[in-house]
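Need tokens for this chain, all 277 residues.
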Amino acid sequence: MQMSADPDDNLRRALANVKAAAQRGAQVVCLPELFRSRYFPQREDPSHFALAESIPGPTTESLSEAASKFNVILIVPVFEKRAPGLYHNAAVLIDSHGAIIGVYRKMHVPDDPNFYEKYYFAPGDLGFRAFDTAHGKVGVLICWDQWYPEAARLTALRGAQILFYPTAIGWHCSEPTEVREQQLAAWQIIQQSHAIANGVFVVAVNRVGVEEELTFWGASFVADPAGRILAQASRNQEEVLVVPCDLNRIEEQRHGWPFLRDRRVEAYDGLMERYLG
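Here are the structure tokens for all 277 residues:
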């Protein structure tokens, strides 16, 4: 999606995209991170807290109706207002009857130029989760989470067959083309590696368009358990991508590459430390 400055317009277009995906046979539909607005964490501005809402709230109510109407499971990113002064970057999983299955709160929260998310969001406190659905067990992680092997691993260890990453990632307008291409390639490679290392499908859902100093690079994609890119969307145009995922591929892949079997769990205590050097 390309986001406008009007949250209601973004919601209307999201609903239209859900309908379009369902009409093409989609069973699980994921929207981009913080899709109700332009990417506001480019600067620290207290007025942006007015964009936040509760769960359940207006966004989940509208998307719950759509999930029921179109018989799809939805992954709905929300700027969550948990309490006065306490906010999360969250994603809500809604089943095809319109009921909320669960919530994931972004665990890794960045604080970088043009990505000042720590000003707005408390880190997630629900842990890494996998949710049972009618179409498989689904794990949800959000954007900056996608760079962390631990997040993918722990979600897969809870039984997730598909890792969904609603995302808002792009280039700064001043970065040269070579740097841009390196960043996009790294973003894709790290997520392909999660698919391979865990024997799961990975779905990354980004936004497109220019917003202030960032150009969002799109390129949403689906990778299979061998890390192969099954489909990839445009870098600069809105697009609804519908991709069949045969969950039988997970067991087939893990037979040949039994990474979960050969993990040396007794030797990994160092992962609980910040640094061991």
